Queue: 3 jobs
Job 1
Amino acid sequence: MHIGVPLETLIGETRVAATPETVKKLVSQGHAVTVQSSAGLNASLLDSAFEAAGARIGDAATAFGADIVLKVVAPTPAELAQMRAGTVLIGMLNPFDDGNIVRMADSGITAFALEAAPRTSRAQSLDVLSSQANIAGYKAVILAANHYPRFMPMLMTAAGTVKAARVLILGAGVAGLQAIATAKRLGAVIEASDVRPAVKEQIESLGAKFVDVAFETEEERQCAEGVGGYARPMPASWMERQAKAVHERAKQADIVITTALIPGRKAPTLLHEATVQEMKPGSVVVDLAAAQGGNCPLTVPDEVVVRHGVTIIGHSNLPALVAADASALYARNLLDFLKLVVDKEGHLHLDLEDDIVKACLMCEGGRVVRNNGGASGP
Ligand code: NAD
């Protein structure tokens, strides 16, 4: 089959959907791969490296004109116009954006949004949310350290002792756990909170302290269990108690990293303005939920702002700041998904009995499909 890899045109998107490593594998399986000229440049991947791996370097029209198009983010209307009816598009296509899915369906393409894959063991190797959240968690700590006007580790020097930074992490999923691990490597003292009590052990095994907000009702306990590994919105009673606990911890913290997301909904507010007001001057907040409305109401998407003496970082695409590795992991996720929709003879084979294929399919034959209502979440 002909597989196309276009240059991503969204502002700030530096990743690319294939690497020379994955192109080599696709070519060895008998596919012809066209990589748009300069598609990998922002991820430190030269056209010559793609060519050496067996790709043809072409223009946008050739890449979008392929049988299968591999992309990082959803296509713009101009990009969609370059695809033929029946083209298979695979990428992070934002399954909760109805307008976007309807546009893709209207164009007659078959689209798979990998964010909608179930969180099962079999789907782990193509789990784009995990591969990219892992990078975001790492980069959040590096950015925070960069903006923080003090050392992260404790230092005992001839000129005196420097205390270790105190880091508070709200939301200990994939990004939060990587943030804990990264902050730990930099020598910080860490506390972390999540609605899911199951993460207590994971937080502690990484050397951080779990901020426990106990459940007082059966409703709170059930909400916290979530659905399919994802959180659900918590009752107001629990959120109030959590806000109190966060308020006390954030006053002591030097860096707060928030990562709490609820699929398909606005991110919950975890760090209120009244809390930021009482944080130490020079403290840093990194809000990983910036693109979903933010965990802090003071966050401005894609900006670094200073409010009440606290630096608040609202970068909405942290994986794009680690473009080479983010692309490498993402491209491997795509390669694993392709195994599910292309048979051994190299032909397209859509098996809708396969739970992963079924969950990721967004549209086919001019119709919106979305077998799971948009994602594997609630
Ligand atoms: P996510 O990005 O959707 O959310 C981040 C975290 O925020 C989650 O841990 C969530 O519980 C937490 N959160 C939501 N509301 C909160 C609140 N009010 N206060 C504090 N925390 C809040 O989650 P994710 O990182 O994509 O994944 C969540 C979990 O799914 C993982 O930790 C893991 O257990 C599971 N998972 C399973 C697989 C698999 O089995 N293949 C793969 C990836 C993740």
Note: Residues 227 and 378 are 6 Å apart (CA to CA).
Job 2
Amino acid sequence: MTTLDDLPLRDDLRGMSPYGAPQLDVPVRLNTNENSYPVPDAVVEAIGKALQAELRDLNRYPDRDAVALRAELADYLGHGLTGDRVWAANGSNEVQQQLLQAFGGPGRTALGFTPAYSMHPLLALGTGTAWVDGRRDASFGLTADEAVAQVEAHRPDLVLLCSPNNPTGTALDPAVIEAVLATAPGMVVVDEAYAEFARPGTPSALTVLPGHPRLVVTRTMSKAFGFAGGRLGYLAADPAVIDAVQLVRLPYHLSALTQAAARAALAHRAALLATVDAIKAQRDRIVTTLRERGHTVADSDANFVLYRVGGDQKATWRALLDRGVLVRDVGLPGWLRVTAGTPEETDAFLRAMEDVGRDPE
Ligand code: PMP
């Protein structure tokens, strides 16, 4: 049998395994920060109609520039944005890959502040961009001074910030973003996949866009919109940044079906985004309950919560799975991450955690 070792694979990919959380068939799946609520019937119907209307024309390539969709995404974002300042692709992962292809690549460097979204270093690897693992403090905080010192030390071509940060859940102080922008010699990308879940008083980096052509804010319909299966991510930036990603995007990367489904979903955004408040309520309930039980819990502006289990998080992860609850071991010793889902899922998670208990620190 031929194995990977027999193929002339790139040296830097040898010995690696594909990224991905376990997709296990268990009653309570709280491990990938999906939106637990299914698409409402009225929206299912609207998306169905929109897809149907495309089918006869599937002999033709789709609108390569996704002009209508981008204008509608700009309208959703507000902040005076227009379609020429927005770009869309198959998930914000693809958007970020395009940014690294355009602004990173061989001989260039990207800096992120670990722990953050674990795909960022992998996207750097895939695009041949050198990755620098920046540091956070012991409680996962990042001050403007610390961030600036690391940007000055490494002079990266791209800085990747994640706010609210995955896996910690906490949004960045906007002062950090502004300080990094003032110092960074290259592009500054703020990954705002969870922006819609932020606690009040957490401004989006979109507010900083005017006058900052090297700032890019990435968003997704995978979380708040409950549209992860639709694969639609997007960015907002100066029109010149959109010119840059168009140099590396594949022609017709967004299928006619994806564009039509996303537009129908956006047209029904009130119904889809109606789940956000319910999810935030469960998020806050998880934070409060775990703290009452003595766990250390990171502040969350997202649809998930990072909490300390003490001892060996792998054992707690397994014990929760044995009770039908799948959470995420993000590889931080002593910590686990749980997605906030429906009230029933939160009940099941909190019950299982009570059962499993907390190891003494
Ligand atoms: N950024 C962050 C911080 C994420 O957590 C995720 C999803 N796990 C993504 C981006 C990618 O999401 P998508 O490709 O579905 O838009």
Note: The first helix runs from residue 41 to 54.
Job 3
Amino acid sequence: MKALVYKSTGQLALEEKAKPALIATTDAIIKITKTTICGTDLHILKGDVKEVAYGTTLGHEGIGIVEETGNAVSNFKKGDHVLISCITSCGKCDYCRKGMYSHCREGGWILGHLIDGTQAEYVRIPYADTSLYHIPADTNEESLVMLSDILPTGYECGVLNGQVQPGTTVAIVGAGPIGLAALTTAQFFTPAAIIMIDTDSNRLEVAQSMGATHTINSSQENVIESVMALTDGEGVDTAMEAVGIPATFELCTHLIKPGGKVANIGVHGKSVSLALEDLWSKNITITTRLVDTSTTPMLLKSVSSQHLDPASFITHRFKLSEIETAYKTFGNAAKEKALKVIISNE
Ligand code: ZN
Ligand code: ZN
């Protein structure tokens, strides 16, 4: 089969690889129909995620059709259309029993990280019963690729941890797919204002079309002054960090009012400075989280009931044979006006 392989830092290639086989009785083999590329895959390619071995098939998002199941798999059978969660969970360990699947002792984020991932014709999914979801009939299947990672990530790490409530004010720093996923799902709670902050005017336009009440181009405006002007000089109730660099995290700590929450979503590779001399008395909360995907069933229902339309995140489509070009397009997201690219298995 064809698979997109991480060869070495900065190098990837679509190669012929052996089709995965069942290893444990709890495994399933899935024929991938659609997958996508995540910002995290670009971090891996840059060499930021050291534990990814050369030769690993990348990708932790996708949908597909069950090809084969181990004897212990009871929820899924050959031919079922399934959504693959970016988080693998055994369902039995202490973390899984708490709903903290991201820290599953047997799983967590392993796809396209510690084991071969979804940017291939087939993938082996461990603990299939608790790591796959049935795709409801009559849904736009392709759009559900956004439920593997970005929508649960924006919702759990940003909206739930940031405690967005009706009437509150929210700032989201970063209008990439994850920031936009937080913007979209924050609207479940009808906040009074959602201010999107980015350096890319195209992404801010998209944010406006997805429900942002205000946008701030941080390459043209002083963000702190603009946010204060929009919030009667007080700051916001919730600031979400959706970039993953020190400057944007530190910015979030300056945007919140007393009692405010900074909800980190970004993947960070460097230390940040925390102005604790200003913050110690402000009753603030800072949260971090690796997505658990515990809200995926709820998000699937929101898509079915048309309260959530993940199709609006898709800007480009490629075949698996064109995946190297897809990486280039996604890697030049601002110039290409790319949000999420869909890779189809021809
Ligand atoms: Zn991802
Ligand atoms: Zn577990």
Note: The first strand starts at residue 2 and ends at 8.
